[in-house]
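Kindly draft a sequence, keeping tokens residue-aligned:
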Amino acid sequence: MKRAFILCSRLLLMVCMAVCFTQAAFAGSGNEEFKSVNHKGYNTLAPENTLPAFELSAQKGYQYVETDISFTKDGVPVLLHNPNINVMARNPDGSELAQEDIEIGTITYEEALQYDFTKGMEECKGTKVARLDDFLDLCKAKSLHPYLELKNNGDYTKDQVSGLVKLVRSKGMEGKVSWISFEAKYLKWVSEEDPKARLGFLNIVSDEETMKASVETAKDLKTGENEVFLDLANKTEYVTYDYSLCEKEGLPVEIWVNDEYNEFLGITERDVLETLDPYVSGATVDKYIYAKPEIELSPGVYTYNGEARKPEVRVRLDGEKLKEEDYELTWPEGCKDPGTYQVTAHLRKGIFAGAETAEFIIKENDN
């Protein structure tokens, strides 16, 4: 399984190298706190909700990723959007499943492993359904902030939701995730286990009345210790919706872009982002491209001397050296023992701000 994951990641990286990363000025890009959330991982080049897709999200420069949680028959939380596995699962030979509508809740995790979760992407053969705990480990390693969707078709129990919050806590990710759902009761259960948890109420707003109802539901999720936001469906007629009630009640607004709907209308994710109301503080999207910085480390190689070592970092964008306030550096722990270490520079400004990673080495002292 690990070998298949590495193979898929390498193939996808080769594709990514052909993509040109550009920077432009966009409406709303003055919001330095804008959250750009990659929907189900970078699912246009990797199977959605799989570890290779989220690995690719990090490579593309995303800091936030969205995924969907389902449970197997034996209670293992896995990443899956639909209640059945047929959209994603393939037999090892690449053929589609003969049996229709195999629901993930009717098979064990071990039974799920007999299938490849590739959605027909041949280059990712061998990719298996992702466990939530492995996903959280990846997010922690790659400094990704996950949006965990509790599906309205999930039929979760309170104990299951409580278990999810405890799993996040056990992985050292408490306070570093956002919980989203169309079902307010699931979010309420999350807050009972963790009153400080960041919660997003998902909804489709079509008029003033549904907006008022959404606001009231979201307000009821506040514990006095947490952040609550509305996560609304984006369709062209809603982009310029009046968010004054949200602002009055102190509710941030994020949107999610329905890519298939946009294609039907003949618009792109970029079209949507360029016309966002300035109050919107985040967007969940499939594939728009980031501006990525270039990183230079000096020196790139150290000899072990028992002390922590950190090279000087120079960050540029389109050849221009950036000021320290324009980016944030993420360092690994230690930087002391012999080995290879990675430092990541995250651009601070703009909806399309991305990240890049560079490596430095501490080698053995031969003396």
